[in-house]
Amino acid sequence: MASNKFVTLVTLVVVLLPTIAMATDYVVGGDSGWNTGVDYSAWAKDKMFHVGDALVFKYTNPPHNVFKVNGTGFNACVKPTGNDQPPLTSGNDRIELKTPGNKWYICAAADHCKSGQKLVITVMDTAPASPPSSAVRGIIISGYQVFAAAVVGLFLAIAA
C-alpha cells in the first residue's frame, strides 16, 4: 500500500516538475517596473517569452495603468473603448501568457504611451523550436536523476 502511494507521488513529481520549473514570471521593466522613462524594447529584446510564462506589471496607481491592446492601438497609443477591455489598475498585475503570438500593452495615463510606456512581445509556443544540445540534455537528465535519488532517499528514510 505504501509503495503504491510512493510510486504515485514520484510519478507526479517527475511529470509536473518540468512544467513548473519551465514557466517564468517576468517583472516588466525589471527593477524600474512599469513607469515612464524605461526602454521596454530594450528590456524585452533578449528575453524569450513562452506560453505558460507571465508578465508582472508593478507600478503606482494613479497615475499608471495597463491596457492590453492590438497592434493598431499600440502604434497609435489608443486604449480600447467600452467595457470589453477594462484597465488593470492594481499596481501588481500578473498576466499569464496563454497563447502564442504578438502581445501589446500600453499605459493610457496622460501621454505615457506616447513617451514610451508601452510594451510589445512575441510569445512562442511551449515546444522548443529545436531540441536541446546533447550537453544540455545531459545536464537536464543529471538534474532529474539527482532529484529522483533525493526523493527516493527521503521516502526510504521516512519508511524506515
How does this model look, in words?
It is a single-pass type I membrane protein. Residues 24-125 form the Phytocyanin domain. One of its GO terms (molecular function) is electron transfer activity. The chain is of the alpha/beta class. The chain has a domain at 24-129: Cupredoxins -  blue copper proteins (Immunoglobulin-like, Sandwich), CATH 2.60.40.420. 36% of the residues lie in helices and 19% in strands. It has helices at 2-22, 40-44, 71-76, 134-159; strands spanning 25-27, 49-50, 54-58, 67-69, 92-96, 101-106, 118-124. The strands form two sheets. It has a four-stranded mixed sheet. Strands 1-3-5 form a three-stranded mixed sheet, with no helix packed on it. It is elongated, with a radius of gyration of 21 Å. It starts with a helix and ends with a helix.
Defining key terms:
Immunoglobulin-like; membrane; disulfide bond; 160 residues; Phytocyanin_dom; single chain; 3-stranded mixed beta sheet; 4-stranded mixed beta sheet; metal-binding; transport
Q: In angstroms, what is the radius of gyration?
A: 21 Å
**Please, how many helices?**
4
What structural class results from the helix and strand content? alpha/beta
What is the CATH topology assignment of the domain at 24-129?
A: Immunoglobulin-like
Sketch the topology as an H/E string, one letter per element: HEHEEEHEEEH
Largest sheet report: 4 strands, mixed
Uncertain segments: 7-17, 135-141
Please report the distance between the alpha carbons of the first and last residues.
15 Å
Provide the CATH architecture of the domain at 24-129: Sandwich
Signal peptide: 1-23
Membrane topology: Single-pass type I membrane protein
Subcellular location: Membrane
Transmembrane segments: 139-159
